[in-house]
Amino acid sequence: MILALIYLSFFSFFSCQNDLIEYEKGDVKVNIEQGDEWLHDFPLFWGINKKNPPQIAIWLEDTQGHYLSTVYATHKIATQSWLSAGGNRRKEALPCWCYARGVKYEDGLYLPTKSKPLTDGLSGATPRGSFNVKLKPSGALQKFVVKVEINHSTDFNEYYPKSAKEGDANYSGGKQGSGQPALVYAANIDLSSGQKTFEANLIGHSSPDGTSGEIYKDLSGLTTALHIVKRITVNVQ
Question: What is residue 178's three-state secondary structure?
């Protein structure tokens, strides 16, 4: 019944292709603007790094915090397509979204697998710059929350080091883990208000080791992660 309240059409393009998205009156556009740390050096081998964009999930909740539907998730987490993860399922990547969905898989974790990936049409390649996502809520859905979770792999700093051990408060998956935990942004949308633009605010970070879907408000240990995104807005057409 919850999903019946929402009709979602999803389109995602790189920033240079945003003019290809056609919007009609009543459509909702989630606009994510890249920050200075959008591309992150991911180590490959022999000291060679690759510039990687972040992992992202966008989903809707009702005003009571109940999960409604996923709008978009990047391909790697949606299909378990991690490279050089050393068998790590990367439960620390986007745990708030994973636990919000509430889908438990055969290994006891809450993120999609290769054999049971996220439904086609909801995932896509990680954009290498600013991008838009389009959705069309049904007329019955007037008030809802858009949440965005974003995270880099191997984004280590002094507080979240590669050397942290499993069980430590700052452990984030080991040498191929997240480093700094994922950040969660939220925008409260009221389509009946007449307001056309809603700002998504940073509400905290996810569980560093991915063992819960909790949101932690203390951001004092975060550095570069705070600059992955410059701004997130939700615009009503």
Answer: coil
Cα–Cα distance for residue pair 157/70, rounded to 1 Å: 30
Q: Contact 112/105 with Cβ under 8 angstroms? A: yes
* pLDDT tens figures, 164-210: 999 999 999 998 899 999 999 999 999 999 999 999 999 999 999 99
Location of structure tokens 């999609």:
112
CA-to-CA separations, 80 to 42, 87, 206, in angstroms, rounded = 18, 10, 19
Alpha carbon separation from 217 to 111, 165, 183 (Å, rounded) = 23, 23, 10
Instruction: Write the DSSP string, 95-161.
Output: HHHHHHHT---TTS-SS--SSSPPPTTSEEPPPSS-EEEEEEE-TT--EEEEEEEEE-TTB--SSS-
